[in-house]
Write a structure and sequence with these properties.
Layout lengths: L9 H10 L3 H6 L1 E8 L5 E2 L2 H12 L7 E11 L4 E11 L12 E12 L2 E11 L6 E4 L4 E4 L4
Length: about 150
């Protein structure tokens, strides 16, 4: 899979690799020393780790998922770097018992660098959207969504 020629095309390239269940192509969108933080704070610190983690997920609990990019916002940081935010919809995840899980919405943030081959991620972070919450409250072993605005 080629690197996107335009930053705004990066989320679609990420989703296309996801939908093909092609962890190698997904990881190739990232620099060799890229960082990726997932929705629960697991931090992968290079392309090989990003590929390994996504291969596992895409062949197990995400094997039947659809990843649908939504709103994309691009914020250039000069000529050779940019930040891309994208709302994503994830459908079809399997719960630990194998039953269907509900849909999830996230915001994926990519920090991109221009290369001769196209735009490549040097960092990414995925954040779950929790409707009706503004933060979490930590308990003994769980985080509970809370909204203090009421």
């Amino acid at each position: 899979m080629a690197l996107p020629a335009r930053p705004e095309d990066f989320p679609a390239a990420f989703a296309a690799a996801w939908m093909a269940r092609d962890a190698a192509s997904l990881a190739a969108l990232f620099a060799e020393d890229a960082d990726f933080v997932n929705v629960v704070g697991i931090w992968w610190r290079n392309r090989a780790a990003i590929e390994k983690a996504h291969h596992y997920a895409l062949t197990s609990f995400f094997a039947e998922t659809d990843l649908v990019p939504g709103l994309v916002r691009v914020r250039p940081l000069g000529a050779d770097h940019t930040i891309v935010h994208c709302r994503m919809l994830l459908k079809g995840q399997s719960a630990p018992d194998g039953s269907p899980a509900g849909d999830r919405r996230t915001v994926l943030i990519f920090v991109l660098a221009r290369t001769d081959a196209g735009w490549q991620a040097v960092a990414a972070q995925n954040t779950d959207v929790v409707p009706g919450a503004e933060t979490y409250v930590a308990g003994e072993s769980t985080l509970t969504p809370q909204d203090y605005r009421r």
